[in-house]
């Protein structure tokens, strides 16, 4: 897997962590370099001072050729050194480049030529005996580090009497450096352990808006645009904020496009309904006219009893309702209809009674006295509207509390106010899902609890919407808790019912 294929929630923390580690390494390298330079400078300065002191202290013993006094002078620094002092031995050469005195005469006897000294001292002697000033030798080549320094011994008149050579133990020098580097590590490692997690957390926080943006946009095509927009990072003036703003504009355009597609689909369905209704309208209206004429003939010229007259009246109103249904499907149709009266509300209860009994549903009617008076609204259309709502409510009704043995319930509430008629049809049962609610009044969309083939073709609520729109009213749906209610509000005109062409059904309610 390539590094470029990693998620940004890993790339940014890794990059910050790498920068922190690299910075820490650079700082540590700079401190180590500074420590090494300071350690060498300290060693060089201390050895320079020692060479200067020894050069002055050995001046008289060498002039008088006093060997034991010279041995006491060079032995004093060795005896007084501390355990961490890397000074190993001191060798003094005379003017003939032979050993005059050494701190370890058994290893380096008197009169030993400079060329036969240990390699580091021999190399330093070759340089120091021919130079007039202080010499410092730090050689890391070969098997190990070699440390030495030296300087001239001169008389008061400037005559060169000899050379002082100092040899240092590299092991003690390395131990001293190791101690300094250990202290440096103790200071650097805690900072590194603290900064790396902080850098990782900061990288995760910086990458979070990008991850949030990617996760939100990956839902396009699977969830509604409004739901996706809620998961986008907040808009702002930085790059992520501007990108979030553009993504919201894109989702808004996508939502408008989907709404337009739904409108086009609804228009196509309406066109299909128009073609079907136009084809069957004449086939339905012709037998309807004959049956209505037959009922009128029996009622006028026959001698039916009271029960038969009531039955004939119910049949006539039912056939008129069928004609009104066909008129609702045919947008251009205009049918004369009597005003809404108390008999219509009784007929609705009579027509829905078999479905109530078959499903064991209880109906509660609350019709105000003002609503029982004649209302100047088309009775056929109001009957069709309320009957469709009642039948849908009966089919969708479920017990509100099945565990307590409560029966499913349907309610019908009718109220008359100044200039309006309010009808509410409700039923107990589960609430309507949001995705169904958004398309509830479209043709061929089935209400909850209904399926095609068993309870019609999904035109009931669409017909209700057409009637409400024709009467310039409003229909609203509320589905929360254990009740689902359809509320219809219709304006009551001063004279006959209005005849306005219906508008397109809504896409959302």
- For the record, the CATH architecture of the largest domain stands as 2-Layer Sandwich
Please state roughly what percent of the residues sit in beta strands, choosing from under 5%, 5-15%, 15-25%, 25-35%, 35-45% or over 45%.
Answer: 15-25%
Can you give the helix content as a percent range? 40-55%
Under CATH, the homologous superfamily of the largest domain reads PAS domain
Q: How would you describe the shape?
A: rod-shaped
From the helix content, strand content and strand pairing, which structural class follows?
Answer: alpha+beta
Number of strands: 12
- Class of the largest domain, according to the CATH hierarchy? Alpha Beta
According to CATH, what is the topology of the largest domain?
Beta-Lactamase
What gap, in angstroms, lies between the N and C termini?
50 Å
Runs in which pLDDT lies below 50 for 5 or more consecutive residues are 331-335, 451-457, 496-509
Task: Domain count, please report it.
Answer: 3
Largest sheet: 5 strands, antiparallel
The SSE order reads HHHEEHEEEHHHHEHEHEHEEHHEE
How many helices? The count is: 13
Mean residue pLDDT: 80
Radius of gyration: 54 Å
Instruction: Give the spatial strand order of the biggest sheet.
Output: 2-1-5-4-3
């Amino acid at each position: 897997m390539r590094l470029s294929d990693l998620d940004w929630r890993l790339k940014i923390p890794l990059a910050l962590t790498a920068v922190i580690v690299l910075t820490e390494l650079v700082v540590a390298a700079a401190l180590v370099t500074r420590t090494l330079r300071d350690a060498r400078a300290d060693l060089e300065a201390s050895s320079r001072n020692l060479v200067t002191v020894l050069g002055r202290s050995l001046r008289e013993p060498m002039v008088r050729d006093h060997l034991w006094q010279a041995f006491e002078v060079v032995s004093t620094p060795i005896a007084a050194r501390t355990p961490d002092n890397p000074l190993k031995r001191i060798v003094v050469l005379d003017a003939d480049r032979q050993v005059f005195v050494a701190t370890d005469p058994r290893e380096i006897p008197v009169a030993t030529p400079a060329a036969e000294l240990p390699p580091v001292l021999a190399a330093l002697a070759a340089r120091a005996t021919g130079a007039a000033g202080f010499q410092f030798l730090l050689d890391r080549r070969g098997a190990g580090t070699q440390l030495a320094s030296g300087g001239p011994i001169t008389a008061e008149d400037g005559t060169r009497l000899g050379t002082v050579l100092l040899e240092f133990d590299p092991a003690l020098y390395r131990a001293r450096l190791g101690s300094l580097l250990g202290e440096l590590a103790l200071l650097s490692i805690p900072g590194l352990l603290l900064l790396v997690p902080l850098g990782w957390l900061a990288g995760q926080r910086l990458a979070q808006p990008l991850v949030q943006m990617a996760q939100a946009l990956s839902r396009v095509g699977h969830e509604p645009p409004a739901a996706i927009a809620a998961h986008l990072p907040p808009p702002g003036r930085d790059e992520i904020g501007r990108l979030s703003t553009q993504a919201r504009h894109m989702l808004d355009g996508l939502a408008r496009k989907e709404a337009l597609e739904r409108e086009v689909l609804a228009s196509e369905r309406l066109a299909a309904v128009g073609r079907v209704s136009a084809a069957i309208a004449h086939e339905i209206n012709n037998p309807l006219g004959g049956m209505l004429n037959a009922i009128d003939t029996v009622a006028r010229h026959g001698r039916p009893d009271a029960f038969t007259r009531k039955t004939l009246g119910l049949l006539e109103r039912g056939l008129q309702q069928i004609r009104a249904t066909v008129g609702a499907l045919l947008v251009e149709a205009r049918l004369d209809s009597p005003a809404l009266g108390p008999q219509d509300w009784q007929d609705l209860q009579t027509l829905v009674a078999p479905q109530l009994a078959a499903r064991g549903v209880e109906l509660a009617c609350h019709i105000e006295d003002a609503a029982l008076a004649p209302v100047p609204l088309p009775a056929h259309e109001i009957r069709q509207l309320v009957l469709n709502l009642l039948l849908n409510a009966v089919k969708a009704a479920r017990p509100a509390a099945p565990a307590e043995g409560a029966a499913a319930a349907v309610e019908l509430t009718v109220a008359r106010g100044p200039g309006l008629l309010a009808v509410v049809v409700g039923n107990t049962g589960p609430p309507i899902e949001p995705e169904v609610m958004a398309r509830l009044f479209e043709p061929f969309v089935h209400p909850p609890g209904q399926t095609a083939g068993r309870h019609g073709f999904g035109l009931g609520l669409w017909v209700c919407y057409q009637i409400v729109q024709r009467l310039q009213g409003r229909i609203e749906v509320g589905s929360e808790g254990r009740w689902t209610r359809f509320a219809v509000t219709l304006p009551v005109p001063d004279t006959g019912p209005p005849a306005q062409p219906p508008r397109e059904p809504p896409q959302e309610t």
